[in-house]
Write a structure and sequence with these properties.
This protein folds into 2 domains: 174 residues, Lyase, Ornithine Decarboxylase, Chain A, domain 1; 259 residues, Alpha-Beta Barrel (TIM Barrel). With 489 residues, the chain is an alpha/beta fold. The protein is 27% helix and 24% strand. Helix 2 crosses helix 3, helix 2 packs parallel to helix 9 and helix 8 runs parallel beside helix 9.
């Protein structure tokens, strides 16, 4: 069969449109004897029957195994060069009390970047000393809450934050450990909106301001400087950027050592994963070893000791362990005229639109970043030939696309369950109620059991926020919010 001319160049028509690429799906994902997808020993059909769709599903065993493996990989790479290692789970990827508990059990610290994420980590029982607090515009209430509960480190993102954190620490009678976020100037090979260490963006401070700002931090008796922090971007598929960023930071690190201690160097996260069978991220072991070699080489050249290092992976741990299950509502073949660039001849090709019961409210990444995803029929296997499809959502937006291009069996039909893998990161976290769709539940699966870890919303939940319906207090700020006052952890 000739390749559909509407297919992107990277998308190869599969010999079997039921096959699950192992680099994309959760570790326990497979097809049962009846052809239905199972994950964590639970079938997609059972999950849909019990919890409805759309539904986020997270493989607990896979999350735990990935967390433990990441920690082991970085320790194995850095211990030989004499460096202690801390690994923080980046909670912004997806955070719930269950997930916080899993990664903490496996030895990871947790990075939070809002009062809400801090509240979740504390509610999970994670010791505040194991938390780091990011953010380019942390409110005074968030700073005070972090200081008051004994947070392990606050990442200072601007000159103004030095005084704010110092004042809060003085009021609570503590000495607060802080890091300084720095733009290393390294441009990660990723989407423009995801590259966070080039100069023209909101995070961190330029390298040429670091020494002045660190002097200001050290002048505050209520602060203790722990080291520099840098995050060069997200969904990075090679080690080159991390190695170069470490080299640039260590040059400043060495100068800072001339006037005081600099015990740590935090190199951030952003390690990429496979979203499609065409993605080839570098092996994490190779990335860790490459960064360790760069750190060891530069420290030797500068004649300084190797500092403790820290990393902050999120997507790498939770992304591949998650998938989303949808129900197909309609299918619609659309004929598209395609013009041959070489001879100008026009042909007609067909793309099958497969519309599901979710969309950009549960996965906005395709619309926001042009992200690519995979998909498979989850309720059955099929012997039908592959057909090029576009999985669309139900929102009133032409850009509401879940999977831009994929090959599915041509007999995909209304009522089928569709599974989209690698949705553990930044899907629930970025979800919304656009068009007044309730957010889906998140279910954890393990060893044949399924458990709700985040309750799905109902229309009643949405209406409960509308004071025209409830007649409740019209104060726009919830009484339990961090902004309503500093709360004890």
């Amino acid at each position: 069969m000739a390749t559909n001319p509407l297919a992107p160049a990277w998308l190869v028509e599969p010999a079997d449109a039921n096959a699950l690429a192992p680099t994309v799906w959760p570790a326990t994902a497979k097809r049962g004897q009846d052809g239905a997808l199972t994950v964590g020993g639970v079938s997609a059909r059972e999950l849909a029957d019990r919890f409805g769709t759309p539904l986020y599903v997270v493989d607990e065993a896979d999350v735990r195994a990935r967390a433990a493996r990441v920690l082991a990989v970085f320790r194995d790479a850095f211990t030989p060069i004499g460096a202690d290692v801390k690994v923080y789970y980046a909670g912004k990827a997806f955070l719930s009390t269950a997930v916080a508990g899993w990664v903490a059990d496996e030895g990871m610290n947790i990075d939070v970047c809002s009062g809400g994420e801090l509240a979740v980590a504390l509610a999970a029982g994670v010791d505040a000393s194991r938390l780091g607090f990011h953010g380019n515009n942390k409110s005074q209430a968030e700073i005070e809450r972090g200081v008051s509960v004994g947070i392990g480190a606050i990442v200072i993102d601007s000159e103004q934050e030095i005084g704010r954190v110092a004042d809060a620490a003085r009021r609570f009678g503590v000495v607060q450990p802080v890091r300084l976020r720095v733009n290393s100037g390294v441009h990660a090979h990723t989407h423009e909106f995801l590259a966070t260490s080039h100069e023209d963006q909101k995070f961190g401070v330029p390298l040429d301001q670091v020494e002045t700002l660190v002097a200001a931090i050290r002048a505050e008796e209520s602060l203790v400087f722990r080291g520099l922090h840098c995050h060069i971007g997200s969904q990075i598929l090679s080690a080159d950027g991390f190695a170069e960023s470490a080299t640039r930071l260590l040059a400043v690190h060495a100068r800072l050592l001339q006037s005081g201690e600099v015990p740590e160097l935090n190199l951030g996260g952003g390690f990429g994963i496979a979203y499609t069978s065409a993605d080839e991220p570098a092996v994490l072991t190779e990335i860790a070893e490459r960064i360790a070699a760069a750190v060891a080489s530069e420290c030797a050249r500068l004649a300084i000791g190797v500092p403790a290092v820290a990393f902050e992976p999120g997507r790498y741990i939770i992304g591949p362990a998650g998938l989303t299950i949808y129900t197909v509502g309609t299918t619609k073949p659309v004929a598209v005229t395609v013009e041959d660039v070489a001879d100008g001849a026009a042909t007609t090709a067909t793309r099958l639109y497969v519309s599901v019961d979710g969309g950009m409210s549960d996965n906005v990444r395709t619309a926001l970043y042009g992200a690519e995803y995979s998909a498979r029929i989850a309720s059955r296997a099929s012997s039908a030939s592959p057909a090029l499809v576009r999985v669309a959502g139900k929102h009133c937006e032409s850009g509401d696309i879940v999977v831009d291009a994929e090959y599915l069996p041509a007999d995909v039909a209304p009522g089928d369950l569709l599974a989209v893998p690698a949705t553990g990161a930044y899907c629930w976290s970025l979800s919304s109620n656009y068009n007044y769709l309730p957010r889906p539940a998140v279910v954890a699966v393990r060893d044949g059991s399924a458990m709700v870890i985040v309750r799905g919303e109902s229309e009643d939940d949405l209406l409960a926020h509308d004071v025209g319906v409830t007649g409740h207090d019209r104060d726009a700020r919830p009484a339990g919010s961090v902004e309503a006052g500093v709360q004890a952890g």
